Amino acid sequence: MSAREPAWMDVSTLTTTTFGHRDLGWWGTLGFVVIEGMTLFICAMSYFYLRRNFALWPPGHTQLPGLTAPAIQCALMLLSWWPVRLADKAARQLDLAALRRWMIVMTLFGFAFCLLRWFEFQALHTRWDSDAYGSIVWLTLIFHTTLLVFEAGETATLTAMLHARPSERLFSDASDNALYWYFMTGVWIALAAMVYLVPLLRGVP
Amino acid sequence: MSGAVTPAVDAGGAREVQARLVAELDASWRDAPGLRGWLTTTDHKRIGRRYAATAFFFFLCGGVEAALMRLQLSRPENGFIGPDLYDRLFTTHGTTMMFLFAVPMMTAIGLYFVPLMVGARNVAYPRLNAFGYYTFLIGGLLLYVALFAGNGPADGWFSYVPLAGRDFSPDKGADVWSQTVTFTEIAGLIAAVEIIVTVFKCRAPGMSLARMPLFVWAMLVTSFMILFAMPWVATASMFLAMDRLINTHLFDPSGGGDALLWQHLFWFFGHPEVYIIFIPGLGMVSQIVGTFSRREVFGYPAIVLSMIATGILGFGLWVHHMFATGLPQMGASFFTAASAMITIPTGVQFFCWIATLWSGRPRLAVPLLFVLGFVATFLIGGLTGVMIASVPFDRQVHDTFFIVAHLHYVLIGGALFPLFGALHYWWPKLTGRLLDERLGRWQFWLFFIGVNVTFFPMHLLGLHGMPRRVYTYLAGTGWGGLNLLASIGAVTIAASVVVFLVAMWQSRRASAVAGSNPWDADSLEWATRSPPPYNFALVPVVTSRADSGPSPPANHPW
């Protein structure tokens, strides 16, 4: 046991706005990424587990999924990384005008993703209650759609706040938002390959 | 950190500065007045206490359910409880103890003490913390409102399909179960993120990972386990709800689904859940052993590495719950080996605690008594765990009372004994008052005897072939005597819990005022007042693993 009095530290001079791993919000975002990433990983595991039960995947009576909407969605998601990178850069440089501009572009991308998602559901060419194949592809899309809607809403709210009452804190929030955006779009490109391309291997479970 | 390190102050001018800072802190951290302040508090200590009180209330509910079941089984062909109510009771009992008591109680203790032990003023995300508590509360209330409305779940705490599917459980019980699980797992995930970020980012200057108290390490490992385990059951329970509510076919073989998928998803969470429940207990035991042996815990790095190893290995054992499903031989052998391997890190920790006690000057206060009870009880649970890791033996006793005995020895031994010890140990920090030592000894002995009298006979009942989850049995089976003995044990456990309730009630007024460090312990939570106002008025600088220093004087701002 120590016999001395503890020392104390004056931390009032430390900066209040930080970015990346120095920021608590970044760690919280990473926590969400892990949890939601696990959820989508479980969907993928279930997809391949259920696939073993079928001689044909998708089942014989089911039409192959369409590729147009998912291809456009994936291309749009990849394209969105450009404004996201610029928004992140503007946030780290505390450049409010540039950040506002790129956040508006991101918001438009977010709403476009949600709109395209409707067509991605149509492109599945099956219903959730047809069979296990339909169930797992629908649920994978539904789970990811909650992320899309959440992110579109958060980006729009953050953009509105940057215009209505900008504060230093919002710069690190915008930077954390970029991290989540990369996750949300990156994970979908992998899942889209599973949902829309794996069925093209029909008959090879 | 670029701030200047200044030694603790004794000059008059600096004391004035301290007094002003204390007043400002008090104003900053004070909750809003009235009911609004009570509901919207973000103080980790108030939320931690609230979590603990709610979880303890659910523990009492689960205990009442257990008592009713023991009453029913105390004699053969008893008509006290019918089969339907019995099904709902054992399901609600298991769900309560696992989802509404054990994990939330451990996270409650973590949410209260981790910030104090790392020298922080709050958890990383205080508002999210409050949200997590309310999510947990809603999940718990949902289960009990449904039970009293006659729609409680009746499919067991792991809600196996197809029993939990629409065809065999057409009422709303399984839906309630899945929603309760989703809510409580979201709360658990929130608490895990809170603790991980608090430990990684909010430690006081100088508190390196290698200087953290062992309980903080235990909560860190547990939180990582929660992060990777709980999404499985949360997702699986949503799958189940979808199968039941919108006709998906994930677990329905008629639509190409698979009932075994449920078991994989559930047990990939369910087995780590056991470690999620008892690794915090290992941390509590380490704190208590160190303090009451009056020396630093022997083998700190070995204990930390063992906890991490347990956390990792815990994810590789889930299939041993599924030996009876007809797995390939090679797979079963692998999981048998993995299940046996988990005993190695646990054994290392046991030897470290024994070495600490052996080389220290043990003081046999109530917290240490509970630790000794933990050692004995958990050891028996661990040994029967090795037995059922063997496929032939497991197939023999699968779904018998032997399994009931094993899981209660592990969970009560690994979680409840350390928890009661920790409550006696940290009660002075929580309330500013000591729990009565004499009542504590009564509580311990009643609990220790009660647990063994209740659960040891269940091993024999299982070996004699009594299946679990039957509401009654025939007189000719010869199981009556051992069942009566187990029921007498349950009464003894109930008496022990009543003694604990009396001790808690009595401590409000009659017990001795504790002071800030009544046990002469050496971790940072003891360096602030009891109960702590806003943790630490000044940011402490830590220079060694045992750094609480001497008990501060009454007017000291810490």
Brief characterization of the structure:
The complex is a heterodimer of chains A (205) and B (558). With 205 residues, chain A is mostly helical.
Description of the molecule:
- The complex is a heterodimer of chains A (205) and B (558).
- Chain A has 205 residues and is mostly helical.
- Chain A has one domain: Cytochrome c oxidase, subunit III, four-helix bundle (Four Helix Bundle (Hemerythrin (Met), subunit A), Up-down Bundle), CATH 1.20.120.80.
- Chain A is 70% helix and 1% strand.
- Chain A has 5 helices and 1 strand, in the order E-H-H-H-H-H.
- Chain A is elongated, with a radius of gyration of 21 Å.
- With 558 residues, chain B is mainly α.
- The chains are: A mainly alpha (205), B mainly alpha (558).
- Chains A and B meet through strand 1, helix 1 and helix 4 of A and strand 1, helix 6, helix 7, helix 8 and strand 2 of B.
Give the full name of the CATH homologous superfamily of chain A.
Cytochrome c oxidase, subunit III, four-helix bundle
Order of helices and strands of chain B: EHHHHHHHHHHHHHHHHE
Helix content of chain B: 55-70%
Structural class of chain A: mainly alpha
Mean pLDDT of chain B: 92
> What about the largest sheet of chain B?
none
List the helices and strands and how they pair.
The complex is a heterodimer of chains A (205) and B (558).
Chain A: E1 7-9, H1 24-51, H2 68-92, H3 96-123, H4 132-164, H5 168-197
Helix pairs in contact in A: 1-4, 1-5, 2-3, 2-5, 3-4, 4-5
Chain B: E1 5-6, H1 12-29, H2 34-40, H3 44-73, H4 83-118, H5 126-148, H6 173-201, H7 214-245, H8 259-293, H9 300-313, H10 329-341, H11 343-359, H12 366-388, H13 391-397, H14 401-431, H15 437-463, H16 480-507, E2 539-541
Helix pairs in contact in B: 3-4, 3-5, 3-16, 4-5, 4-6, 4-8, 5-6, 6-7, 7-8, 7-9, 8-11, 8-14, 9-11, 12-14, 12-15, 14-15, 15-16
